[in-house]
Design a protein that fits this description.
The protein has a domain of 166 residues: Vaccinia Virus protein VP39 (Rossmann fold). It has a seven-stranded mixed beta sheet with strand order 3-2-1-4-5-7-6, sandwiched between helices. Strand 6 and strand 7 form a beta hairpin. 42% of the residues lie in helices and 20% in strands. 37% of the residues are buried. The chain has eight helices and seven strands. By secondary structure, the chain is of the alpha/beta class. It comes from Shimwellia blattae (strain ATCC 29907 / DSM 4481 / JCM 1650 / NBRC 105725 / CDC 9005-74). This is Carboxy-S-adenosyl-L-methionine synthase. It catalyses: prephenate + S-adenosyl-L-methionine = carboxy-S-adenosyl-L-methionine + 3-phenylpyruvate + H2O.
Amino acid sequence: MSNRDMLFSAPIEKLGDWTFDERVAEVFPDMIQRSVPGYSNIISMIGMLAERFVTPGSQVYDLGCSLGAATLSVRRNIHHPGCNIIAVDNSPAMVERCRRHVTAFKAQTPVEVREDDIRHVTIENASLVVLNFTLQFLAPDERQQVLNNIYQGLNPGGALVLSEKFSFEDTQVGELLFNMHHDFKRANGYSELEISQKRSMLENVMLTDSVDTHKARLRQAGFTHSELWFQCFNFGSLVAIKEGAAS
């Protein structure tokens, strides 16, 4: 059972910028369930997508794996021989816990958990790549190169799952969904102080894009097929498929 997220329940004098440190890792499962609408649906459906796209003898990459929820969902749903899952995160606290979670759940598909920067990971022989609320923490001018690298390392017929918090060009709709997200957090027990302090810490490190911007980047990387497959308020997930039959 996860510890309850109380990180922002008291006033913090100097907020600073958000980091995925030991304190965040300790409460992360509770935090993400109470903060990201539809998160558990996305995790379970990533497993369903893995069942469709992962091929024998190929690799799966979970880039920005945090505690390994997507990795474990994929592993539960693939039963092909010769597959390997590579889970990557740059937070030592997340990597340590992810390794523990992976070890606790035995399965035939091996998982390698790496502490690394996803910008430096070489993608090879991949049938599925997962970026689950990860790209939004990179500088906007670094995002295209990461998608280019993923496309290059995907096998024909392979897929990328890209989950993000979205911004909206229509300001009225954007404001509605922003406010509904805050209603969601209030309904899950977060106070106004917790909501505002967390938002202040995230505003410099999590810069969101519109769905159209994501699709444009995916096209530029080489994907000819991409679409939004899940959305709840201002959170959602796209799937992009590399042209060609799976080998």
